[in-house]
Amino acid sequence: MKKIILIILIFFPLLSCEDQLTDVYNDGKVYNLGDKGPGGGYVFYINPDFKKDGWKYMEAIEVNASFCWSDSSALLGVYGEAIGTGKANTNRIVQLTLTATDCAARLCRNFNGGSYSDWFLPSIDECEQIYLHLVLPGPLLPNNYWTSTEIDNTNAYFFQTSGAGAGSPSPNAKANPAVIYGVRCF
User: Fold this and answer.
1) Contact of 43 with 33, CB cutoff 8 Å
2) pTM of the prediction?
3) Are 69 and 100 in contact (CB under 8 A)?
4) Ordered DSSP codes for 82-133
5) From its phi and psi, is residue 84 left (phi > 0), alpha (psi between -120 and 50) or beta?
6) Which residues lie closer than 8 Å to 181 by C-beta, 6 or more apart?
7) Which one of 27, 57, 67, 165 is at 20 to 30 Å from 17 when CA atoms are compared?
8) Cβ atoms 57, 47 nearer than 8 A
């Protein structure tokens, strides 16, 4: 009997500490899809693997109403599509287009919404979540917007929100303008 009580006394505090760490992670605030995030954007994704990944939520905000993906015709090799790859894509785009002033990724990187400077251009799968949770139900308007995922040296994907291809990524010339949503994890 003493062993059972001892085991309970040892493991019970550990279980409660784990919950407290989860609560402290975001200062105790729980966000739902569509809620305003700390950076001024709207929450569009809740990460089921937040303990492993180090972030629990993604928020999105409009950074620019109409801008090109890049003024560079170089092939950058940014093909990440999955949730969590937009930041790496953005870092690579910015690194490889040092002289490009017209660059959607650089606009996101330089954005300072909510006094946060960790914004990035979302990947295809991140854009799909924006579409499902912020465009269809609102509050974001149904505008075609850039992803950070490249196709070739002259084209990248943008996420189409109207017409026959609504709700899916479509090829678009990098020089063409589209809406830019900045994304950040927290």
Assistant:
1) yes
2) 0.83
3) no
4) STT-HHHHHHHHHHH-TT-SSBHHHHHHH--GGG----B---HHHHHHHIII
5) left
6) 60, 61, 62, 63, 121, 122, 127, 130, 140, 145, 146
7) 57
8) yes
